[in-house]
UniProtKB/TrEMBL annotation:
This is Olfactory receptor. It comes from the Eukaryota. Gene3D superfamilies: Rhodopsin 7-helix transmembrane proteins. It is a multi-pass membrane protein. Keywords: Cell membrane, G-protein coupled receptor, Membrane, Olfaction, Receptor, Sensory transduction, Transducer, Transmembrane, Transmembrane helix. Putative odorant or sperm cell receptor. One of its GO terms (molecular function) is G protein-coupled receptor activity. Belongs to the G-protein coupled receptor 1 family. The lineage of its organism: Eukaryota, Metazoa, Chordata, Craniata, Vertebrata. One of its GO terms (cellular component) is plasma membrane. It comes from Muntiacus reevesi. PANTHER family: OLFACTORY RECEPTOR. Residues 41-290 form the G-protein coupled receptors family 1 profile domain.
């Protein structure tokens, strides 16, 4: 960074959706709903996965990790925007912006890796069921989940440090509702080719490659489903796979359109809505699509509710 020309920036100002006040109100309501639904759905999934011994399986272990990710992801991306709207402020400190950028990138990057691990887990469970307990044992599950978190955290750290060490020359107005890395990068007044190369390499490693692995896994899964003799069983399996793939395509598609688009395309307003999709919509859909539609989870939720009701009745009767 050129120390002579750098001007210290202590606070950033978000433009958000200020060009249209009505749109800003609608966006606030939608984001609040998405955040609350996401929070509730993911907390329910984590609770039943921990409390019900029947759900102590690799699939629900990975889903619990995904739920933790989604809670962190939506909290880091949406809660500052919601708080700013309520308070009427649109500023954030430099350290706050750095933290928000890092956690959003870390959670998003970790999810990219974790989704591919989950797809491989389903591939082994369906295409190689006899060896599934051996291949996806507890040690392997913990190692792959930890590897996903470490990979996402490390790549996010590299990107965040690479961008924030560059000179901003006093520019502090971010045309976004959050400290999104591309929006902050537009404030930089020095050559960004090295940083863009770093981001390109990381984006290729975390977006097209995991998505390719997911597509290959589901291709084998669909091939196995076609061999199911029962028409009802085949249709249910197809329905489940289609729901999973729709969420995957939505998440990776929006991320790809954001981070791997040509640099000549400048669509900052569109980028804001794309960010809302992968930071708010997909974390809300994940627990619904992956878990809350499952019969096992529904049964576990009912057991948990009945157990709590019985405990509450016994406590009230003892009084």
């Amino acid at each position: 960074m050129d120390k002579t020309n750098a001007t210290v920036v202590s606070n950033f100002i978000f433009l958000g959706f200020t060009h249209c006040s009505q749109l800003e109100v609608i966006t606030f309501v939608l984001c609040l709903l998405m955040y609350l639904i996401s929070l509730l759905g993911n907390i329910i999934l984590i609770s039943v996965s921990v409390l019900d011994s029947h759900l102590h399986t690799p699939m629900y272990f990975f889903l619990s990790n995904l739920s933790c990710l989604d809670i962190w992801y939506t909290s880091s991306a949406l809660t500052p925007m919601l708080a700013n709207f309520v308070s009427g402020k649109s500023t954030i400190s430099f350290s706050g912006c750095a933290a928000q950028m890092y956690f959003s990138l870390a959670m998003g990057s970790t999810e990219c890796v974790l989704l591919s691990v989950m797809a491989y887990d389903r591939y082994v469970a369906i295409c190689n069921p006899l060896r599934y307990p051996i291949i996806m044992n507890k040690k392997i599950c913990v190692q792959t989940a930890a590897g996903s978190w470490v990979t996402g955290s490390f790549t996010a750290l590299v990107e965040t440090v690479s961008v924030l060490q560059l000179s901003l020359c006093g520019r502090s107005v971010i045309n976004h509702f959050t400290c999104e890395i591309l929006a902050v990068l537009r404030l930089v007044c020095v050559d960004t080719s090295k940083v863009q190369l770093i981001m390109l390499v990381i984006s290729v490693l975390l977006l097209p490659m995991p998505m390719l692995l997911i597509c290959i896994s589901y291709a084998f899964i669909l091939s196995s489903i076609l061999r199911i003799s029962s028409l009802d069983g085949r249709s249910k399996a197809f329905s489940t796979c289609a729901a999973h793939l729709s969420v995957v395509v939505l998440f990776y598609g929006t991320a790809l359109s954001m981070y791997l688009k040509p640099s000549t395309i400048d669509s900052q307003e569109v980028d804001k809505f794309i960010a809302l999709v992968y930071a708010g919509l997909t974390p809300m859909l994940n627990p619904i699509i992956y878990s809350l539609r499952n019969r096992e989870v529904k049964v576990a939720v009912k057991k948990l509710l009945v157990r709590n009701s019985v405990c509450a009745l016994s406590v009230s009767s003892s009084k």
